[in-house]
């Protein structure tokens, strides 16, 4: 019987002009946002390729520069099309004991379509438009039938009241689910077609979970609309209620969080943590300053294309203290890097926890849950940023060990250094030789480095690898909140069912 | 057969809409309930249909009790209201098809679930109730009230329920449509259907009913058979009751 009821409900929805118009609007918006986002993603990919090429070129030319600055470069996330997420620059510079705490931009350009705090993506379409769309379909699903009179006839059939609610719920749900799923699947096929290398198990899993989450979202709002429809006998009144609920869920609650609750948490905790982070950083800088007198000083270095301000050599007078310096840095200064990083992580973890608290506080608001969970699924949440930092730090730690082991680590930065025995120049002699002309000094040094007798040794080290989430990890990240989502749907279902049990069908 | 025993309904505001109503209608009979507005006619029908729960008493249709098995009882009744409201986005045929599909009788002990509507040729049923062929696949929104009543009867027919509950079915019908509808009801009665009809129309009640009941203040104050009414003036009797009620209300 449910099948007949469902078919009828879907047919009824399909024949409604109001709904027909809304569906067309939704599809147009979906296509527009998708196209703009794909163009943006293509742009990000091009920028990423430029970044990687530049990095490789830099590493290759380290023979001339002597200074190695490997970078951890995050690939653009294809899911930014669906959820722009937590925006961060993509590049992390890896330098000796420098704390890795902030990402930087390299070749990134601002996209005029997506300025800060204006995340026009499919998630926005779902949370803003689709939620409204569902409420506009379902606000009169019960009282509309009562007003027309068909509800009374239906209730003279061997039809349980919960079956009627199920008919309404699944009718709206399937209708909206199909309306969303068709363009969603087409968009994925298009992405796979356009960006061939993207297809992977992870990609498909993320796509599946995003779809699953959207289905839960649609189910919740379908039920919410039906519940509102049961709360009033007048469809016009329930339309007003629906709009008020939508404004509450989409605008008032998120804004109250962002402007009332979050700033309090932010002021009290995040600023406190940031102060700790700042103190640690200051402490480290002070220690760094203390050891800096061991430097020989900087001068111009010639790279072939131009002159760069860099530290290239340790001079004779400082070489004596080199081993001592290295040991000091490794034992005393390097650990401070971890403390600074730990302090930074505490800030990020606090923000992640705050977002998770938000999920629990607003468990009844699928818009909040959807926003946060979709970021966890698509891989551009704060947690992913933290993981990005950690991966880069792991690589940094490896490089430090390698530098100590192979002896090219001299300064506080990575130097593809000439072997120790050639690494001695007398600054004063050199200074006199070039008569204080730094430009000539650079040329001289370049000739010195370029001399085959003093061949540079570029250490072999691994490149940055982007962390990839396994199925289990993705599931683990979202499982609790998915359960929370399902529980909120069940609670709403029970409320709707009980409301309709007492509903006067006359 | 319909049997109602001590059926009462008191609303939350304290209003006693139905006061120990007892009634029995045999198979193949038309019972007409007459009464002023608020007499309790519609309340009785609403309770039998399961729209509102009674505060006391019970209803049986063919030995099925409303209090014990409300879902199965619904298989035994077909309801037709004053304004037959249907799904305006669908044609007459599609409306009938939908209600035929959901007429399934749920499985009970020893009985499998069946759908009595399956044995009907829906197009033939629509023709039988007098719907012209060109309107069968026409959208309901283009139907007149009489045509909607015909679809309503067709829906009741395919449900194949032994009991028909009609709430002011002649209200607003033109003479031709009323005549056609009356003929249809006679046909149903002759086929063995039991019909309970509420109406304000005394002449129609006298003309059609095998038994006429007058309700007042939630009580069934009088019943007369067709034979008894042959020698009495139903109009006078009805007006006497109404006036008595008015006098009582004024005294109160």
Task: Name the features.
heterodimer; A: 506 residues; mainly alpha; two-stranded antiparallel ribbon; 68% helix; B: 252 residues; Rossmann fold; 2 domains; six-stranded mixed β-sheet; 10 helices; globular
Explain what this protein looks like in three dimensions.
The complex is a heterodimer of chains A (506) and B (252). Chain A has 16 helices and 4 strands. Chain A has 506 residues and is mainly alpha-helical. Chain A has one domain. With 252 residues, chain B is α/β, with parallel strands linked by helices. Chain B has 2 domains: 1-41 and 170-252, P-loop containing nucleotide triphosphate hydrolases (Rossmann fold); 77-161, 3-Layer(aba) Sandwich (Rossmann fold), CATH 3.40.50.300. A 6-stranded mixed β-sheet of chain B has the order 6-7-8-3-9-10, with helices on both faces. In chain B, strands 2-1-4-5 form a 4-stranded antiparallel β-sheet. In chain B, strand 4 and strand 5 form a beta hairpin. Chain A binds chain B through residues 1, 4-5, 8, 11-12, 15-16, 148-150, 152-160, 504-506, and chain B through 46, 49-52, 71-72, 74-75, 77-79, 81, 83-90, 94, 98-99, 101-106, 155, 159, 165.
Topology:
The complex is a heterodimer of chains A (506) and B (252).
Chain A: H1 2-14, H2 17-60, H3 62-65, E1 71-73, E2 91-93, H4 122-138, H5 143-148, H6 150-154, H7 161-194, H8 201-231, H9 235-291, E3 299-302, E4 307-310, H10 316-319, H11 322-361, H12 366-378, H13 382-406, H14 427-433, H15 438-450, H16 471-501
Antiparallel strand pairs in A: 1-2, 3-4
Helix pairs in contact in A: 1-7, 2-4, 2-7, 4-7, 4-8, 4-9, 4-12, 7-8, 8-9, 8-12, 8-16, 9-11, 11-13, 12-16
Chain B: E1 2-10, E2 16-25, E3 30-35, H1 41-49, E4 56-61, E5 64-65, H2 70-75, E6 77-80, H3 92-101, H4 122-128, H5 133-136, H6 145-159, E7 163-167, H7 175-190, E8 194-199, H8 202-208, E9 211-216, E10 219-225, H9 226-230, H10 234-251
Helix pairs in contact in B: 3-6, 4-6, 6-7
